[in-house]
Amino acid sequence: MGDPKRIRKKYETPGHPWRADVLAEELKLLGEYGLRNKRELWRTASVLRRVRAQARALFSVTGERKRQQEEKLIGKLNRMGILPEGAVLDDVLRLTVRDFLERRLQTMVYRLGLARTLYQARQFIVHGHVFVGERKVRSPSYHVMRGEEDKIRLVLPSKQEQSTSPAS
Protein backbone atom coordinates (compact mmCIF):
# COMPACT_ATOMS: atom_id res chain seq x y z
CA MET A 1 0.00 0.00 0.00
CA GLY A 2 2.91 2.35 0.53
CA ASP A 3 4.01 4.35 3.51
CA PRO A 4 1.52 6.78 4.96
CA LYS A 5 2.56 10.39 4.85
CA ARG A 6 4.38 11.38 7.97
CA ILE A 7 2.17 13.67 10.02
CA ARG A 8 4.00 16.78 11.19
CA LYS A 9 3.11 19.69 13.38
CA LYS A 10 2.28 22.81 11.39
CA TYR A 11 3.30 25.15 14.18
CA GLU A 12 6.05 25.94 16.65
CA THR A 13 5.33 26.56 20.28
CA PRO A 14 6.79 29.62 22.03
CA GLY A 15 10.36 29.27 23.24
CA HIS A 16 9.40 30.44 26.73
CA PRO A 17 5.77 29.37 27.18
CA TRP A 18 5.31 30.60 30.75
CA ARG A 19 6.27 34.27 30.33
CA ALA A 20 3.42 36.40 31.68
CA ASP A 21 3.51 38.94 28.84
CA VAL A 22 3.36 36.19 26.17
CA LEU A 23 0.48 34.45 27.96
CA ALA A 24 -1.46 37.70 28.30
CA GLU A 25 -1.00 38.59 24.61
CA GLU A 26 -2.02 35.10 23.48
CA LEU A 27 -5.12 35.14 25.67
CA LYS A 28 -6.09 38.55 24.32
CA LEU A 29 -5.75 37.34 20.71
CA LEU A 30 -7.71 34.16 21.46
CA GLY A 31 -10.66 36.19 22.70
CA GLU A 32 -10.39 38.90 20.06
CA TYR A 33 -10.48 36.45 17.13
CA GLY A 34 -12.57 33.64 18.66
CA LEU A 35 -9.87 31.01 18.35
CA ARG A 36 -10.55 27.57 19.80
CA ASN A 37 -7.08 27.02 21.27
CA LYS A 38 -3.56 28.38 21.21
CA ARG A 39 -2.58 25.87 18.54
CA GLU A 40 -4.56 27.92 15.98
CA LEU A 41 -2.68 31.03 17.04
CA TRP A 42 0.69 29.28 16.93
CA ARG A 43 -0.03 27.95 13.42
CA THR A 44 -0.71 31.49 12.20
CA ALA A 45 2.39 32.78 13.97
CA SER A 46 4.45 30.07 12.24
CA VAL A 47 3.15 31.15 8.83
CA LEU A 48 4.13 34.74 9.64
CA ARG A 49 7.55 33.60 10.85
CA ARG A 50 8.22 31.77 7.56
CA VAL A 51 7.13 34.76 5.45
CA ARG A 52 9.33 37.13 7.43
CA ALA A 53 12.28 34.72 7.17
CA GLN A 54 11.88 34.69 3.38
CA ALA A 55 11.88 38.49 3.36
CA ARG A 56 14.98 38.70 5.57
CA ALA A 57 16.79 36.21 3.33
CA LEU A 58 16.08 38.43 0.31
CA PHE A 59 18.08 41.28 1.84
CA SER A 60 21.30 39.30 1.33
CA VAL A 61 20.50 38.40 -2.32
CA THR A 62 21.37 40.84 -5.09
CA GLY A 63 20.60 41.39 -8.75
CA GLU A 64 17.88 39.95 -10.92
CA ARG A 65 17.28 36.96 -8.64
CA LYS A 66 16.40 39.29 -5.74
CA ARG A 67 13.94 41.25 -7.86
CA GLN A 68 12.19 38.09 -9.09
CA GLN A 69 11.90 36.52 -5.63
CA GLU A 70 10.77 39.80 -4.10
CA GLU A 71 8.03 40.20 -6.73
CA LYS A 72 6.98 36.59 -6.17
CA LEU A 73 6.73 36.97 -2.37
CA ILE A 74 4.97 40.34 -2.44
CA GLY A 75 2.65 39.16 -5.23
CA LYS A 76 1.67 36.11 -3.19
CA LEU A 77 0.95 38.22 -0.10
CA ASN A 78 -1.02 40.66 -2.26
CA ARG A 79 -3.18 37.85 -3.70
CA MET A 80 -3.73 36.61 -0.14
CA GLY A 81 -5.04 40.06 0.75
CA ILE A 82 -2.41 40.73 3.37
CA LEU A 83 -0.38 43.42 1.58
CA PRO A 84 -1.73 46.28 -0.58
CA GLU A 85 -0.65 46.99 -4.17
CA GLY A 86 2.77 48.60 -4.44
CA ALA A 87 4.11 47.18 -1.17
CA VAL A 88 7.85 46.84 -0.65
CA LEU A 89 9.99 44.30 1.22
CA ASP A 90 10.01 46.43 4.38
CA ASP A 91 6.20 46.13 4.51
CA VAL A 92 6.57 42.35 4.73
CA LEU A 93 8.71 42.76 7.85
CA ARG A 94 6.06 45.00 9.44
CA LEU A 95 3.37 42.30 9.20
CA THR A 96 1.86 40.98 12.43
CA VAL A 97 -0.17 37.93 13.43
CA ARG A 98 -3.26 40.15 13.43
CA ASP A 99 -2.87 40.78 9.68
CA PHE A 100 -3.19 37.04 9.04
CA LEU A 101 -5.96 36.49 11.62
CA GLU A 102 -8.06 39.21 9.95
CA ARG A 103 -8.14 37.13 6.75
CA ARG A 104 -9.59 34.00 8.41
CA LEU A 105 -13.08 32.98 7.28
CA GLN A 106 -14.37 33.06 10.85
CA THR A 107 -13.31 36.68 11.27
CA MET A 108 -14.63 37.69 7.84
CA VAL A 109 -18.08 36.16 8.48
CA TYR A 110 -18.29 38.15 11.72
CA ARG A 111 -16.95 41.39 10.19
CA LEU A 112 -19.43 41.13 7.29
CA GLY A 113 -22.28 40.98 9.81
CA LEU A 114 -23.41 37.47 8.90
CA ALA A 115 -23.04 36.39 12.55
CA ARG A 116 -23.61 38.22 15.81
CA THR A 117 -20.45 36.95 17.50
CA LEU A 118 -17.18 35.34 16.48
CA TYR A 119 -18.29 32.14 18.15
CA GLN A 120 -21.56 32.10 16.21
CA ALA A 121 -19.54 32.65 13.02
CA ARG A 122 -17.41 29.63 13.91
CA GLN A 123 -20.54 27.55 14.55
CA PHE A 124 -22.10 28.54 11.20
CA ILE A 125 -18.91 27.52 9.39
CA VAL A 126 -18.46 24.19 11.18
CA HIS A 127 -22.12 23.28 10.66
CA GLY A 128 -21.78 23.88 6.92
CA HIS A 129 -23.88 27.03 6.51
CA VAL A 130 -21.14 29.20 4.97
CA PHE A 131 -20.24 29.16 1.28
CA VAL A 132 -17.34 30.89 -0.47
CA GLY A 133 -18.51 31.16 -4.04
CA GLU A 134 -20.11 27.79 -4.77
CA ARG A 135 -17.94 25.85 -2.29
CA LYS A 136 -19.13 24.92 1.17
CA VAL A 137 -16.27 25.67 3.56
CA ARG A 138 -16.26 23.97 6.95
CA SER A 139 -12.93 25.23 8.23
CA PRO A 140 -13.00 28.41 10.34
CA SER A 141 -9.28 28.87 9.64
CA TYR A 142 -9.83 29.00 5.85
CA HIS A 143 -7.75 31.88 4.46
CA VAL A 144 -9.97 34.23 2.44
CA MET A 145 -8.06 35.43 -0.61
CA ARG A 146 -8.40 38.90 -2.14
CA GLY A 147 -11.58 39.05 -4.21
CA GLU A 148 -13.33 36.28 -2.28
CA GLU A 149 -14.72 38.65 0.37
CA ASP A 150 -17.82 39.46 -1.68
CA LYS A 151 -18.43 35.77 -2.47
CA ILE A 152 -18.97 34.78 1.18
CA ARG A 153 -22.59 33.93 1.88
CA LEU A 154 -24.58 32.33 4.66
CA VAL A 155 -27.24 29.73 3.83
CA LEU A 156 -29.38 28.74 6.79
CA PRO A 157 -31.96 25.94 6.49
CA SER A 158 -35.49 27.30 6.45
CA LYS A 159 -37.96 26.44 9.21
CA GLN A 160 -40.35 24.83 6.68
CA GLU A 161 -37.63 22.36 5.58
CA GLN A 162 -37.10 21.40 9.22
CA SER A 163 -40.80 20.86 9.92
CA THR A 164 -41.37 18.68 6.82
CA SER A 165 -38.35 16.45 7.42
CA PRO A 166 -39.21 13.05 8.92
CA ALA A 167 -38.63 12.75 12.65
CA SER A 168 -36.31 9.98 13.72
TrEMBL record:
All copies of domain Small ribosomal subunit protein uS4 N-terminal, residue ranges: 5-102
Classification via InterPro entries: Ribosomal_uS4, Ribosomal_uS4_arc, Ribosomal_uS4_CS, Ribosomal_uS4_euk/arc, Ribosomal_uS4_N, S4_RNA-bd, S4_RNA-bd_sf
Superkingdom: Archaea
GO molecular function: rRNA binding; structural constituent of ribosome
CDD domains: S4
Every RNA-binding S4 domain range: 103-163
UniProt KW Electron transport keyword: no
RNA-binding among keywords: yes
GO biological process entries: ribosomal small subunit biogenesis; translation
Subunit structure: Part of the 30S ribosomal subunit. Contacts protein S5. The interaction surface between S4 and S5 is involved in control of translational fidelity.
Function: With S5 and S12 plays an important role in translational accuracy. One of the primary rRNA binding proteins, it binds directly to 16S rRNA where it nucleates assembly of the body of the 30S subunit.
Family to which this protein belongs: Belongs to the universal ribosomal protein uS4 family.
Entries under PANTHER family matching the protein: 30S 40S RIBOSOMAL PROTEIN (PTHR11831), 40S RIBOSOMAL PROTEIN S9 (PTHR11831:SF5)
Protein name from the UniProt record: Small ribosomal subunit protein uS4
Source organism per UniProt: Caldiarchaeum subterraneum
